[in-house]
Request: fold
Amino acid sequence: MTKPIAVKARPGYRIWVKFEDGIAGEVDLSGIAGKGVFKALEDRAFFETVSILPHHSISWGGTDDLEICPDTIYLELTGKTTDELTRQDPAVATSA
Reply:
């Protein structure tokens, strides 16, 4: 899948993400903030630390201790399924 190239925290536990193919938009993470491994996101100052790590995951705190898969965010932004995206990307289809 395409890689994220920019991410910013937004009000209301939302993040804005831009991907290398130009897809960009906001995703609401309020449904996971404060739950399970995402409990730390309740702290707004910590939520603001969102960044992209060198291996292209979306992370908080500057480490891979708390991260979310960028593919999940991409699917949310595009409204597509994994199957739809793998059919469109010959590199993904041939590597499966």
The chain has a mean pLDDT of 89. The chain has one domain: 4-95. Residues 4-95 form a domain with the NE0471 N-terminal domain-like fold (CATH 3.30.2020.10).
